[in-house]
Amino acid sequence: MVSLQPPVCDFDEPAIDFTLPGVDGKSWNLADCAGEKGLLVMFICNHCPYVKSIRDRIVRDTRELKSLGVNTVAIMSNDPTDYEEDSFENMKKVSDEFGFEFPYLIDETQQVAKAYGAVCTPDFFGYNGDLKLQYRGRLDESRKEAAAESVKRDLFEGMKEVAETGKGPAEQIPSMGCSIKWKEG
């Protein structure tokens, strides 16, 4: 399993529209997902140990961000051919098990991940109310195992700043995770 870090935040890069199917049976696009104060676009999957270690924190932080006007969408772009755990059926199970309060979408063509420049799971893209990129950092210092509860909540604090000011923090620590499992060819 390859561990990768995404590049630093490309401030003010516009969010890219998409239309993808969700585990709830609906089709979602960028406008459907956006919140008044911003949008967090997360590229996650089910099998990655980096994602598994923080799923409960993702649920906690996204719930709190929603109360600040920042909505969230999770996109699964891995090719599930070699990772059955990432199948659409298993996405539904994980969403139900962890109580995802945000759309969990499948990017079967992988075009959305490529358009965003996503490189790993988890990969977080935090946008302001104008859907301009302001955060491209980590959730916290967790890796394949969750960090202590007392660690700084980088993503939450960064997106709270975005909700309050429209701008993200100048200093951001990149996320780290497993490479996206690209289809061959």
TrEMBL record:
Domain Thioredoxin: 9-153
Gene3D superfamilies (alphabetical): Glutaredoxin
Transmembrane parts of this sequence: none
Pfam families: AhpC-TSA
GO MF entries: antioxidant activity; oxidoreductase activity
Protein name: Thioredoxin family protein
Organism: endosymbiont of Galathealinum brachiosum
Lineage: Bacteria, Pseudomonadati, Pseudomonadota, Gammaproteobacteria, sulfur-oxidizing symbionts
